[in-house]
Amino acid sequence: MCTTCGCGGHDATIDGKPMYRPAHAHTHADAITHGPPHHHGHDAHGHFHADGTWHGRAYEVPHAHAGPLGAAHAPGTAEARIVQVEADLLAKNDALAAANRRLLAERGIFALNLVSSPGSGKTTLLVRTIEAWRGRSPVVVIEGDQQTSFDADRIRATGAPAVQINTGKGCHLDAMMVGRALAELDPAPGSLALIENVGNLVCPAAFDLGEAHKVVILSVTEGEDKPLKYPDMFGAADLMLVSKVDLAPYVNFDIAKAVAYAHRVRPGLEVIEVSATTGAGFDRWLAWLERGIAAAATRRDGDVEALKARVADLESKLAAFAGGARI
Amino acid sequence: MHEMALAESMLEIVEATARKHGATRVSAVRLEIGALSHVAIDALRFCFDAVTRGSLAEGAALEIDATPGEAWCMPCGERVALAQRGDPCPRCGSFQLTVTRGDEMRVRDIAIA
User: Fold this and answer.
1) Is A171 close to B2, i.e. CB distance below 8 A?
2) Using CA atoms, how far apart are residues A320 and A263, in angstroms rounded to an integer?
3) How close is the nearest chain B Cα to the Cα of A42, in Å?
4) Tens digits of pLDDT across chain A (327 residues)
5) Is there a contact between B107 and A45 if contact means CB atoms under 8 Å apart?
6) A56: which DSSP letter?
7) d(CA A250, CA A314)
8) Beta strand pairing status for B105-112 and A81-88?
9) How far is CA A179 from the centre of its chain?
């Protein structure tokens, strides 16, 4: 595990039990503590500028896609073979996320990945949501934090099943963790599954968990410019909850401006203003959840109908075949 | 700082490819990283050096091909350059943009011996 940035995630636990066996040796912990990151100047490796332009190595052909690796490394690597790979860095996570998504679809479960800064009030919002949701459909919750089971404990106090993923030094949930958590929870068909990601507006943006939507929560006690500061996350979300709106009269938070900024990075992003303290906006938020649950059920019913039709078709073919064979 | 996780995924891909081709050493790795992807290049380089230590790819050169950002602008009805998310269309100033290119994070090829 990297002691500096710590994002390997290999000491992650689920309800306190270890989740991983290390896949390969991790010698980098020592290496990283040996010194500060070395600087890569113009000549050594090339770099991005703040405006996004790239300066390559001095000897590279001066455009981005400069032919195969061998061309750039010709001196001294004449015997090296170049192997085409063309693999996405997130391919493994994306495959696991797809498996989660399949499982959720088969059960008609509506799953949300809730993301925000630490302290936006995610857990309080979830507790209030679970209480208000009572009687509609089963709810399960997956909690992600570096340490402690405080959040899962708060959720369990509502009576909803919850598992706590502790990411250790990790800064985000990934699809494997959520897959394990879903296996533990074994949610009933038609459930609402709420995944509370690690409080972090950067890293979770990159990791698909298999959810139907990312829901980003921005509280009025933060800055209204966060959508522009963290565009990846707001760009990846399908709904923004502006939370703690009961505090809006006491803080300098311009909701209209926050929404306008969010629409710059995610045109058309749906926005609901809520307060877990007063319940303001919960009618809209619950209605949004109801639509999601209904859509998940419709899709599942559609799949079931399609399967039934296929089974009926195959059975009739089988009957015709068997009948034909008898004759 | 999820670059450590990305670097570890990269190493898995690189080592699996190298082993499949019977390589004993990886001398270079070339990535394609989009200008709009979820990667801080400096952090990724740092993590690359860290995770490759003791692996087939120890000491390998890391090449990064940059893909420029590009988006579909609704008002213009065409593709335009986009330096970073949250920027307006360079032609009409609209924010009605959908990213079409520049969020790649891929291993393109590796040099093995």
Assistant:
1) yes
2) 58
3) 13
4) 333 344 444 568 888 888 765 444 333 333 333 333 333 333 333 333 444 333 333 222 223 334 456 444 444 444 679 999 999 999 999 999 999 999 999 999 999 999 999 999 999 999 999 999 999 999 999 999 999 999 999 999 999 999 999 998 889 999 999 999 999 999 999 999 999 999 999 999 999 999 999 999 999 999 999 999 999 999 999 999 999 999 999 999 999 999 999 999 999 999 999 999 999 999 999 999 999 999 999 999 998 899 999 999 999 999 988 876 655
5) no
6) -
7) 66
8) antiparallel
9) 12
ipTM over 0.90: no
A11 touches chain B (CB under 8 A): no
Q: Dump the DSSP string for chain B.
A: --HHHHHHHHHHHHHHHHHHTT-S-EEEEEEEEETTSS--HHHHHHHHHHHHTTSTTTT-EEEEEEEPPEEEETTTTEEEE-SSTTPPPTTT----EEEEES--EEEEEEEE-
Interface touch B110/A69, C-beta < 8 Å: yes
**A87 contacts chain B (CB < 8 A):** yes
Beta bridge partners of A162: A141
A243 and A219 Cβ atoms separated by less than 8 Å: yes
- What tokens were used for A144? 């992600």
Nearest-10 crossing angle of helices A175-185, A91-106: 30
From CA A184, how far away is CA A193, in angstroms rounded?
Answer: 13
Residue of B nearest to A10 (CA): B5
Would the pTM of this model clear 0.90, i.e. be above it?
A: no
Identify the residue whose tokens are 């630490």: A118
Q: Cβ contacts of residue A54 below 8 Å, gap of 6+?
A: A46, A47, A48, A64, B35, B64, B66
DSSP per residue over A249-318, as a string? Answer: GGS---HHHHHHHHHHHSTT-EEEE--TTT-TTHHHHHHHHHHHHHHHHHHHHHHHHHHHHHHHHHHHHH
If you measure CA to CA, which chain B residue comes closest to A88? B106
Neighbouring CB atoms inside 10 A of A294's CB total: 13
